[in-house]
Amino acid sequence: TFASNGSTLVYTNTQNLYTVDRLDPATGERRTLYESRRPITVPTLSPDGEQLAFFGRTAEGIHLLVLSLADGVLRQVTRRQGEMNVHPRWTSDGRQLLYYQEEPTLSLRRIAVDGGLSTEVLPNMSWSEQTRVELSPGDRFLSYSLRRGGEIAEARVRDLETGVEWTLAEP
Q: Residue 103: what are its φ and ψ, rounded to 5°?
């Protein structure tokens, strides 16, 4: 994942260990920021390029984690026992994460990057059926693709303030 200004590339490496590495494209300088024996799944860079969110297995379940790229400090964002929280996406201000909760209930949720209680954005959403979730700048509109039989069937947009949702003409 490139930082929005193109100055940094952050990527994962899965040889003997899972690592998060930072590369300066201009100089080729590489630095390992984090190592784990557990997968670093679907990493996504914060809007300011300073943090990396991903999901991974912990003792409590599958949870959202945020890695500071400045100092390599890892924080667990979601914590409830038995939850399966996957595919984090940053809000445009970088203060919250949008994610799918697969267990104990299906929903699209939002949580502060510092943790705490999450709130439901949309019920009955699963990453296997509604995919490619994106927030508009300002976080008012949510777009996603609806899958049927493993294929993208349609693209939808929802106004998160009014709840109005529409299908785009072409997926």
A: -145, 140
